[in-house]
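Table S2 (continued). Query chain:
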Amino acid sequence: MAGCGSSDDKTAIIIDKGTRVLNPNESLAYIDGLLESEPYSSELLLKKAEMLYELQDFDSSYHTLSLISNSEKNIRYRILEIQLNLQLDSVDRALAAAEYLYNYDEIESIDLNEQLAYLYAEKRDFLKAIDHINYCIDKNGGEPKFSYLKGLYYYNFKDTVNAYQYIEQALNNGYEEMNGIILYSDLLMSSNKADEAYGMVNEYLQKEPDNNDLKNALAKIYNMKEMYMDSKNISFKLIDENNPGYRPFLNLADVYLDTYDYDSAIYFAERALEIDQQLNEAYYILGKAHRAKEQVYNAYNAYSKVLEYDQGDPYALSEMQKLENYIAYLQRIKREYESRPVLPTLKPKSIEQ
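Corresponding output:
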């Protein structure tokens, strides 16, 4: 029957015809013109929010999205809401929007489950992240990206056995992103296979000699092989470049810790944390270096910072417990010393000539 389409369907057709040959700014002006006569059209508002997102005007996009009434919030709305909250660094809101789609609209898709996995990983709930990646693998088991993500989440969960299995699986199935190569080299080293990691990283460096990620990986391997001067040379050269990132500072901190130069280890760990304040490895180094210098309170504070970003970290909790026991011991010794009986001072007898 003619004329039975919904108002939003008709609006969508008008939008498509009007914006098909326009550039993004012209399309946005066209949508604004339509909104003058239909200011509450959810389809127009959503299209405008999507266009603003594409133009990377995230604040304006979010404001436009907020004008849509609750009854008109469809799947496109929810997906854009997730993307915007990620751009605006609001992981909690992005997760809430994704969970709404998953739980209430009963939307099950590979993209949504991958997004949920990412969001749960950002909240450091790696087991839930793995659950959602498992859905992706069940639906598309041949995609090596999902094996990589599963390995990555196991790695962050500190399960290196499963991490090794799935990262290796991803690489064997054709995963070629550099993050997979770097993570695999780390896992090889944690499995005492530094020589194998060295061979793999050098092979890739011959293909990409200017790749800083590979150079950082090689510096880390040199450190593990106790080739400290070679490791430091790579890291210092990387620091001399613009925007070196935290990795060369972190590697130098590790080298100096291994070579008992605790002041330098502390200095470079702190430099790494200036770039990324959520580096557990840097706090571990600070804890170890301060403990070696008998600065037990500084060591305790370093490990406690880990728990601000990673509650339940087993290594930090273990080291804090050891330090608490040691501090209690020192306090007990001090109390015993201060409560000891004061003996009278005896004057020496004069020696008669």
